[in-house]
Design a protein that fits this description.
alpha/beta, Rossmann fold, 4-stranded parallel β-sheet, 4 strands, about 40% helix, binds FE2/S2 (inorganic) cluster
Amino acid sequence: MSTKEFEPKILAFCCHYCAYSSADLAGALRIQYPPNVRIIRTPCTGRLETEYYLKAFEEGADGVLVAGCLEGGCHFIEGNLWAKRRVEYVRDLLPEIGLEKERLRMVNVSAAMGGPLAEIICDMVETVRKLGPNPLNSGTNSKNSETLS
Ligand code: FES
């Protein structure tokens, strides 16, 4: 598959209170972002264990975006700070399994940031498009490429 044809599959874990609401706002305002993103609503990014990110890549995601409340604004006090540490931990692990750190990103948004979230999603799609397909998803693991379709 050439890079030109490649449409990355991005999994976005969005916390219910801010990021999911801002994605909703982007939709309500008709702000467009690429359809490459599958949004999963989570109560708080602090609930996301490191295994979730690794499993997402194992299941065929080309990139994973974690979007939580602004720092200081988490509805569970420090959930987004826990998530930040976990994301950094997994980012450091990724090169050891043949993946670039840039495939995993955490951002903080408020519920009113529909436009900025759409821009972040566009940037993530372009970043991962340049990186190419998830190498864990080639060859014998090809069934995984359909998991997120
Ligand atoms: Fe949004 Fe915790 S409730 S990150």
